[in-house]
Predict the 3D structure of the following.
Amino acid sequence: MRDRAARVRTGLVRSSPAKSNQGDLRIHVTLDHLKSLEGRVRSLRLLPSNQPSSSVLNGRHASRLRGRGLNFEELRGYLPGDDPRTIDWKVTARTGEPHVRVYSEERDRPTLVVVDQRMSMFFGTRHAMKSVTAAEAAALIVFRVLDQGDRIGGIVFGDELLSEVRPRNSRKACHRLLSALERANRMLNAYAPSDQKPMGLNQPLSLVARSARRDHLVVILSDFDGIDDRTETLIAGIARRNDVILCPITDPISQEIPNDLKIVVSDGELQVELDITHGEVRKRLETFSKGRLADLLHWQKRLGLVVLPLSAGKDTLSQLRILTGGAPENRGTDL
């Protein structure tokens, strides 16, 4: 049969790989899925200007983002409604008439999205894997930045790879970043070698420190597994000349551990049952999960960062909308 459709119906060949390999999008993302998020980003607010009072990017909730710089445009006479802070007092004193300095916001600000796709992210108990939530959030941010007219680039890292895409104001750079993200996400599986040493967060952060010299927006999406004093030093250095947003990705079980939970943990070869009903085990798990978030909140105060916590137990876009002062989409959040 030369008719492929007929051959598929009779079982002589398999159907299209694009359809057969779609899989469960809660476990692994596809490039098509990430691209489909572009039409939903208009509702996001990532620029520091005109942030609503409920947004965590507003100065009432966290250190205000510096945003793009300002370019001087002109010097003109004062008009009713002008901000008195823009008055040029030297020119006003010299001419005897109030004058203001007019500025315009710089365009084409570079943004770096750093996305964690290590095995520690390959975990989820309710809605999706943490790795999927990070990938979706990264795609949404990438498309929003591109829509704002800024340059977009990023670093995608897993235990076996580290991919860098230099910031460009182009769809080609966007496609390269999303392709790297899909590739890293697809490498995560339950049969990964158990003897492989995980990549630390400090390695990609060192690359960020070299790439983002100044005036970048750096967004880090990770569960921040394995952070240490060196991590804090690197992030402090990056934040000194750039705006930094930390997006800790958590699973609901780390925040609310059920009283009667018994789980089996495996490294692909060996497995052990954890009885969370045991008081000491439960206490250590709660202390561990809460301690990591406490470290990030400490960095937020000390280093002037913004923290946007995301849960793998809810729809990614709805969370970002709420955190940036918008209303959630009318979509189900739990499966």
In short: The radius of gyration is 24 Å.
